[in-house]
Predict the 3D structure of the following.
Amino acid sequence: MGLVVVYCARMRNEKGCFVKGTSADNRCPVGTVRVRTRHKRNSEQRAFVKVAEPNVWMLRARIVWQLRHGEIPPGMGIHHKDCNKLNDEISNLELVSKAEHLDEHRSSFDHAARLQNSGDARRKLRWSTKSTTKRTGRPPSWTESELAAALQSVLNGESAYAVGKRTGISRYTLSKKARRVTACSPSSTQAGDTPLGA
């Protein structure tokens, strides 16, 4: 049974290539209302209206205000009295300065600022020179006895990559400790007798 592919005659030719000058099937006409979700702002939803081609969208609240009262002056914004961003009735809208609008919604912006500040503090702690978890940002998942056994395997000739894959200890840590042990040990010491106090 063969696969049948149906192409839209307006968009693609028989080879499946796009034809120049054709419009997309999913293009919205002017006047279309679309509700968009802003995930970076606590998933708030806003209604947008397509006002011109190609893809010129405006907030529905601004359009409703402009139809009733005319142009919105620079430095001014539209505020929803009941804080429902999808309720764009003219009785629910008011014209306020951007400073007043920010004061009205400062609590939601302060929450975002607190989250940003806590993230900055975590990053500062993570990359400070006094941090014990500087390189990976998390404490090691292995114990000293596991490290000693893995290090012994590396010193006995097994590759640091294979030991690291088996034990979960990074290749960087194993090779660094192995170099330190071999640099500190006397040249007469055998590989099996190497002290592990690195």
